[in-house]
Amino acid sequence: MTNGGDLTEATRKALDAFHHHAQTQHELFKTIPMKPTMVGRGVVEFEGRFPDHFADGKVMHGGFFTILLDTVLAVAAWSRMDTFEPMATINLKTDFFEGAAPGSEMRIKATCDSIADDVASCQGTIYTANNSPIAQADGTFMVGTKSPAVKGSRL
Fold it and tell me: Which residues form a coiled coil (predicted)?
């Protein structure tokens, strides 16, 4: 994995812990063979293969792409933070361009361009091995949790 440079030590440790948890404990993500290939401030990239068990016939199910992008966009937001904070997806728009066969290679790149007023704005794309886009998502995430008694509801 290449290091994009300006990550804080706390952020690097949190991302490493998240990756370990996802690959060994998380009931969904431990079944998806992928690894980080680049992590930088506000940008992440993963490579892997599409697992057979998320296929809808001879192609991958579109919901799989949405779940994968939602998570990788959140990782991009975490990579932009100085310290790890919990997040929740508040909006996710996914566009689909073409199908992909189970077992084929994939690459996912996601960026987090800004975090303003506790809202992270992120984009990401899943590509085939020959760099053809399969699906793309734009997501916004609520960063941190607040007590309603202190700040009131943000939603």
Answer: none
